Each structure stands twice: as C-alpha cells, then as structure tokens.
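Fold this complex.
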Amino acid sequence: MSGQGLTGLSPWSRRLVTVGVLVWCLITVFPLYWVVVTAFKTPPGVVGGPTYMPFIDFTPTLQPFIDLYQGIRGEFFHTFLNSTIVGLSAAAIATAIGAMAAYALVRFEFRVRLGAGLVFFLLALGGYLFFNATFGLTRPQALLLAFPIALIAAVAANRLPLPGPILGNEDILFWFVSQRMFPPIVTAFALYLLYSEIGRLGFQLIDSFVGLTLCYVAFSLPIVVWLMRDFFEAVPIEVEEAAMVDNVPSWRIFFGIVVPMSMNGLLATFMITLAFVWNEFLFALFLTNSRWQTLPILVAGQNSQRGDEWWAISAAALVAIVPMMIMAGLLSRMMRSGLLLGAIK
Amino acid sequence: MMRNDPIKHVFIWPAVLVVLAISIFPLIYSLTTSFLSYRLIPPIPPRVVWLGNYATLLQEPRFWNAIYTTTLIAFIAVGLQYAIGFGVALALNARVPGERLFRVALLLPMLLAPVAVALVARMMFNPTMGPLNQFLSKFGLVNLPFLTNGHWALACIIAVEVWQWTPFVILMMLAGLQTLPEDVYEAAELENASAWQQFWGITFPMLLPISAAIVFIRLIESYKIMDTVFVMTGGGPGVDTETLTLFAYQEGFKKFNLGYTSALSFLFLIAITIIGVTYLALLRPHLEKRR
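Structure:
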C-alpha cells in the first residue's frame, strides 16, 4: 500500500484504523506522562490515590529532585556521571573500531580457513587446561598464556593448505553478528569470575572503568559492524577508485573520504550504541558494586531500598529516561526511512 | 570490487581481538567450569564431576519451570508485538492523519532503560496508588492482584514487554513496507482485489522474509529477559515468574555455585541455539518459495 494510502478501505474502516492507532499511541504515552507527573508530586499527593493534572489535582514540587541531588537516595550525581563517562567512551571506542572492521569487511577480501578457526579453539581450550593442570598456573594466567599461542598458531595455520571450507567476508560478518545471540548471562557470569581472578593477580577489573568499558565495547561491536557495513556499502565506490588511481593510501581513503561521507551513519550508530550501553543492566550488575555503578543498577535498587516512595522513584526513573528521550528526538529527526532499511536486509 | 592491501589487517584486528577476548575467554572458562563441582561459599576445592551438574539440573523442577516461564513470556510477547506492530505499521504507512506525531511517540519506549520502565510499570500496577486499578474499579473490578498473583504477574510482565518492544516491530515493518513496489498494487487494483485480499495476497507474503528476521531477533532477545522481571517481581510470587537468566543469577550470584551456574548457562546457550535453528529450519521452505 506504499504511497497510495488507505484508498481500498471504506471511510468507516479508515476511521477505525485511525482510532486504533490513537489508542496504541495513548497506551504508549500514558505511562510516560505518569512518571513525569509523579516526579513532581509531594508524598501526600501520591499516597492519597491517583491524581492526574498538575495545579488542578495537586501542587507540583521540585522536592524529589532536590532530594535526589543531595544524595538522600544514593549517590545519584556520581552515578549519573559514571553512566555518562562509560556510555560515551564505550560507544566512541566501539563505533571507531567497529567502523574500521566494517569497512574492511566491505572493501577488502578476507579468507579464513575453518581449520584455522578450529585450531584456535582447540589450542586455546587445550592450552588452558594444560597450563592449568601441569604448570600449576592460576586459571587467568593459563588463559592469558594460551590465548596468544592459539592466536599465533591459528594465523600460521591459515597459510597452510588445510582441508575444509574457506570462510569469506560474509561468514566473518555472521560470526560478529552471532555474538549477539549469546545469552549475556553466559558471558557476564564467566567474565565476573575471570575479572575477579585477574583482580587477585593485582590488576583490578571488577568495579573499574577499564573492565566495564571493555566489556561494553565487545558487547556493542556486533551491532556497530552490522549497521556500519550498510552505510559503507552505500558509499559510491567510484570515489574511492578515483583516489586509488592517484595512489592515495588506503588509510587516507578511509579517514579522508569514506568517514566524512558516512558521518550521518556513524552518528546514528554512535547514538544507538550509547542507548544500549546506557540502558544495560546485567553486565553492570555483575561487574560493578559501588565506585563504577551505573544508573540502571541504582534505579533498580530504588524499589527495594526504601519502599514505595513513588515520588522519589519517579524522579530517579526520569533521570535515567530523559537523556534517552532527547536522543529519541534527535534520532527520529535523522531517521530517514532509508537509514534503517539497509540494516534489516 | 574487492581490494587486497595488507592494511586491511590493521582495520579488522582490533575488533576481532576485543570480541575474541571477551567472548572466547568466558566461553572456554565456563565450559570447563561446568564440569566441576565448584563453590565459593563454603569454599570447597574444585572437583571434576563431568556431566554431574548437567544431570542435576535436568532433574531440577525449578530449571524446567524457568524454561517454561521464559518460553511463555517470549512467545506470547513476541506474537503480540508482531501483530500490534504490523497493524500500526500498516496504518502509519497508509498515511493516517497525524502520522508524523505518532512516529516520535511510538519510538520512545524502545530507547528507555528496561529497569526504569519496569519501575514505572510497578507504579501503574500498584493496587492503591496506581491509576490502572482506579480505572478498572470504575468497571467493578476492584484491587486486581496484578503483581502478587502468579498468572497476573506473568500477564503484567508480558504487557510491559509488549509496550516496550512493539515500537521495534513498527519501525522495522515500516521500513519493510516502504520497499514494496507500487505497480503490484496498481495491478491488484485493476483486478478489483479488496484491501483484505491485497494484504494476504501481496503485502504479507512479500514481507515474510523481513517478518521472519524481526520475529527471530525479538525471540532471541526475549529469551534473555531479566531486567524487567528483576524489578517488577524479582521472580515472585514464589518462582512463578522466574526466567532463565534470573534463575542463573540467583544460583551464581546469591549462592556462588559456580559449576552449577556454568552448566546452567551452557544449557541456556544450547536451548537458544536449538530454538534458533528450529525456527530457521521451519521457515526456510516458505522463504525460498517466495524468492
């Protein structure tokens, strides 16, 4: 029905459809309205039963936000700062290295032998068990030792004429994207154990900026690679070919021509990644406890901490929600229909 | 055209290394741990039990309950999301009046933190201070036990999931609808096909590949549900709304039963893979026929 509207429908069903959409819109907006309103209520205004209109039903107050800022319900300001720092840096790093990988996957040819992948996995697993059992190394030590060995062996094995299929760019992309299918609890729990064992070796990763950001970068990379690949594919190759004739090195083609041309895409990807990191709960729950706690953890804790003080809880929820509301506005302005179109194909 | 330049390794390796380190490390680590009997509290030295953890888990009713709950939430929620989302997308695409305004409002929920959304839901469902119960009491339904009765609580969680993620379906389906060629509809119009016929004959089949992808993404994501349940009910009442991720969290983080939890997360991984592969296998004949 693209472009031609509901011409096939009678005026009555047309009205029915409009009402349907309106109802759904109401369902979507009402809870949001409710938090905003509740956040400005005084305690009696909440406990006395539902009230709806400011100035008519109740007198609005800023007290919940003042309480919040003064840290009566936890270190809100500090946590907000944490979320911002971790979110911005993780999104920036992920977008940068993810975009580079995506560009490589679009413009260069890669051939990985399945055999080499197997070599990597088996050597990493075997090496880990071997070092752990025979040399008496601790688990993270064994892993850290087995990992580079397996990696070097796999890169070497890739040059040998191993039997088995050869994987191309599409398969590498699939590998990236399939990381998103993993239940995060598998990674989160193991990462927690690994981080705490590394912590015992004297390098603290739990409740640290590096540990959390690293985890979020890895967690966002699949989406970044997936989205950026489409943007780079849309860049006309003629421009790049012209530059190559002039012997411009590849890295300058990328940074000087391709990146400026796909700035919109990079910005959108950055914002989507930021939203993911900002809202993420499970990893933060496992990997932080006080110093680098992020907003979702603090917000989730509001519930049990001091009972049903809805005015304060609304204010807290609002603090976590508002930045994303602003971003939704920005995103929807950028979002031409074509932007996400490529992503779903 | 594909180029071949050694610099490609500089481009791709940082991403590959980070993903490898953060995904393969934990994978190997928890795979090996899942064969151990290993607890931190009380601290017992690890002991190899091979498949012992898996056997215990498979006999644990709480595990099956978590699988059942998660599956129920995922399938019902995704089904509703798809139905509502497709409907709204069709309406928006047909230039319903005020459509521009709707677009921004409709996208909002999916960008909000699930924990915050769950808190808002708790307010909405609150028996004395919530607007929903007040609204329903006008129809003679007083104090429905929204979050304190197992069935109601499940329904509430599903409702929140639908509220939050239908916008994703709307967004994707809208993008899909805009790719449809117009001439097919013009031809159908000439044949006097009704709107209903046009939908089942053209729109739905042509959008099947995109629909399949969307439902797949949403199903996989729904199986990981944790934040919403964590805040809304904490898995309660009892274990009525305990999902797989929450169960794993309780075992691992509250009881520090490491071997057991690792085995659990591996079973989870296997379950997701089975569901994914079955889904794709079931759908493949349909998709290929259309192309």
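The longest strand of chain B covers residues 44-48.
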